[in-house]
Write a structure and sequence with these properties.
Structural class: alpha/beta
Helix content: 40-55%
Distance between the termini: 13 Å
CATH architecture of the largest domain: 3-Layer(aba) Sandwich
Order of helices and strands: HHEHEHEHEHEHHEEHEHEHEHHEHH
Strand order of the largest sheet: 3-2-1-4-5
Strand content: 5-15%
CATH class of the largest domain: Alpha Beta
Number of strands: 11
CATH superfamily of the largest domain: Nitrogenase molybdenum iron protein domain
Number of helices: 15
Number of domains: 2
CATH topology of the largest domain: Rossmann fold
């Protein structure tokens, strides 16, 4: 089920590509945003998820640097675009040399660096990880306001909602099989998470939610077999780079109980960060079980 999930993303980016102001034009747009003052012109991002939101919304020349993960094709949907920009590793010395007028970070981004930058008087905006589709909309809106790119944020949000509505209409009254995720080191995910919302939107019931789990937590293989979901979903990245932590995904008991027809393999780049391309995770998952989960 690791198809090239770019349809919505490519269409919206194409639509926006001719609509953006240049960095020079941005300098004279004060007062057009919900954010007070002139648009930031030297933006640095320190987090994979803020990297990708900024890449989707920023005007040409507005971004000075992204985190080193943004250009890693194993975790970043927008890695090709990110490679055109300098990278940082979350070190205060790196950020200060770039002389940013806005630093964007995640709430779990290197705390020592974030705290130091604030003490030195730099403007730092933190974004919490998206736990649901509503958080994606909120983060898009906020990033658009920070960058003075509200029109672009609205366009992305509207396209995201249109695609979700289409997928919901396509499912109709189909049976909703149970799907459980299983990752390296026996980790699964419970309710109140972005994964749970994606799985539900794709037409499945989410095992972690039904078991009363919350957040990311370990699920013994024996418990997974007893729960016996219709499908088990794992991340293809763990098979591409073998490690001891991923050996559980090829355990003989797992392979015997859940045959190939019950194993789904996802491209976790579309699941790691909540963004407009998250809808492509829904699309790919819904298409993975024709006539059942879609």
């Amino acid at each position: 089920m690791c198809r090239p999930a770019v349809s919505l993303l490519a269409a919206v980016l194409l639509a926006l590509s001719g609509a953006g102001a240049s960095a020079g034009e941005l300098a004279g747009v004060a007062g057009t945003s919900g954010e007070v003052g002139s648009p930031p012109l030297r933006v640095v991002s320190m987090n994979l998820c803020t990297d990708q939101l900024a890449l989707l919304l920023a005007a040409p020349g507005q971004l000075r640097a992204l985190s080193h993960l943004a250009s890693d094709e194993s975790v970043s949907v927008l890695s090709a675009r990110a490679r055109a920009l300098p990278r940082n590793h979350g070190l205060a010395e790196e950020i200060l040399r770039l002389d940013p007028d806005l630093v964007i970070a995640g709430t779990y981004t290197t705390r020592a660096t974030v705290n130091l930058l604030r003490r030195l008087g730099l403007r730092v905006a933190e974004f919490a990880p998206a736990r649901n589709f509503a958080d994606i909309r909120e983060n898009l809106t906020r990033m658009g306001a920070l960058l003075h790119r509200e029109a672009q944020a609205r366009a992305l949000t509207e396209a995201f909602d249109r695609e979700l509505a289409r997928l919901s209409a396509d499912k109709g009254g189909a049976r909703r099989p149970v799907l459980g995720s299983y990752a390296a080191n026996s980790y699964t995910t419970g309710g109140g998470t972005l994964e749970a919302e994606i799985v539900t939107a794709a037409g499945f019931r989410h095992l972690g939610t039904e078991l009363g789990l919350s957040g990311a937590t370990r699920l013994p293989l024996e418990s997974l077999i007893v729960a016996n979901p219709d499908y088990v979903m794992s991340w293809r990245r763990w098979t591409a780079t073998p490690a001891r932590s991923g050996e559980i995904l090829t355990h003989p008991a797992l392979q015997k109980w859940f045959g190939p027809e019950r194993r789904l393999w996802s491209d976790d780049r579309y699941w790691i960060c909540g963004a407009p391309f998250t809808v492509e995770a829904v699309t790919a998952l819904a298409a993975a079980v024709p006539g059942d989960g879609s």
